[in-house]
């Protein structure tokens, strides 16, 4: 792999993703990893990420100069570039000229910037700068505030840049990273979707042997792709379990039962637990209590299904759709695989021990989607927008009843249909439709007075759901949704638009 040494900026994961976009496998490792341990992994190259420190700060993380002696290609970015310069005998100074944001870069030869415009914009974020490159390095770029903004020593396969090539604001950055990987380090691009599938299938076969596995399907992208990979590897020794808690949107159960099974041929057990969930939720209004009840019931139902399957044959493996960002964010552990499953499924009891199979553990979300398409999953599953585990249960504001769910499901289906028809699916992150079940308002329809409920449209745009903005939907689309919902859904006589960003609002209403 190409190892990205994380110096504590938020950019390390992004660098790893960009490296993979250049079809080279990469992983993020903490900068505290000893050089010997790094080399033991036989890295094809090492990238030093940016970081919040100044190389002068007392606790500034250093780069062990031994790293540059091992013959492994190294690329330094921002802080990593300065740390590299310092370790190799160059000069880093606190000149007082800081550069933040868009900056013009002047290019002067070299392999990294070959064929790029002599002047082009890059994204900078630095206080200190390199004023003298280490011996043996050619200076290939500079900017107003950074006289040495790029250098390379092709003989030793060492190079670096002051700016951030990984961010979209450096329009030629990906090309520079690509040139480092392919031209300077001489790595062949082999990390393709097809190779990911082959590789994972081989790993799953090696792990599971002739054993049996189960997988809980949520209808979401991750569990679907994980299941499809395991199915490709072990065929009908995988059983998928889908819990219908009655809080799904229109067509979702059918989508799993029909489309997913048709695409994969997976063996599927659907547990119809609708009645059970309704009974457990009867009379409950408090959002946190609803969430707790839904979570608890879900685990009980899944646990029962797992127990039944285990009793029938020996199911020792549990498939989970854990993604690479979760692994990195929880400390990057190489992880023992035989963890008590209740740490992961959130409550399976001790006597139901499973060994985890996590085929997406090394993948980013966009790679997961590509793998899904490669495995033949339909777009409707692969490009599905996020939907919360507690489902419509937290979008009926007030007590959850069968009738209210029916009303919300109908309104939600119309909104989704119209948004899709308007080609807006890729523009919006998600658009919850919320039923204000305890609020009534007066309306007039035909000749009669109505006394119905409002629904709220909550279209949001977001990168990661941590923050969000309300999406400026075209008025004509809003109008179509409003007209159709009030005409077609008897209980609803008013459609309102939520124009709150997150923060202060959350995306869901409960
Ligand atoms: P909030 O409402 O916290 O939602 O702004 C952020 C994102 O998370 C989704 N969400 C959930 N997803 N289980 C989930 O799997 C949950 O309990 C849950 N609650 C919220 C929400 O749809 C949004 O994408």
Give your account of this protein's structure.
The structure is a single chain. With 510 residues, this protein is α/β, with parallel strands linked by helices. It has 3 domains: 183 residues, 3-Layer(aba) Sandwich (Rossmann fold); 190 residues, 3-Layer(aba) Sandwich (Rossmann fold); 104 residues, GMP Synthetase, Chain A, domain 3 (2-Layer Sandwich). Helices cover 34% and strands 22% of the residues. The chain contains 15 helices and 23 strands. Strands 2-1-3-4-11-10-9-6-7 form a 9-stranded mixed sheet, sandwiched between helices. Strand 1, helix 1 and strand 2 form a beta-alpha-beta unit. Helix 8 runs antiparallel to helix 9. The longest helix is centred in the middle third of the chain and has 26 residues. The protein is globular and about 85 Å long. The two termini are 43 Å apart. It binds xanthosine-5'-monophosphate.
**Helical segment tally?**
15
Largest sheet: 9 strands, mixed
CATH class of the largest domain: Alpha Beta
Bound molecules: xanthosine-5'-monophosphate
Q: What do the pLDDT scores average to?
A: 92
Note the gap between the termini.
43 Å
Number of domains: 3
Q: Structural class of the secondary structure composition? A: alpha/beta
Q: Could you list the spans in which at least 5 consecutive residues all have pLDDT below 50?
A: 333-347
Number of strands: 23
Strand order of the largest sheet: 2-1-3-4-11-10-9-6-7
Which fold name is given in CATH as the topology of the largest domain?
Answer: Rossmann fold
Q: Approximately how much helix is present in the residues?
A: 25-40%
Radius of gyration over all CA atoms, rounded? 27 Å
Q: What characteristic shape results from the CA principal axes? A: globular
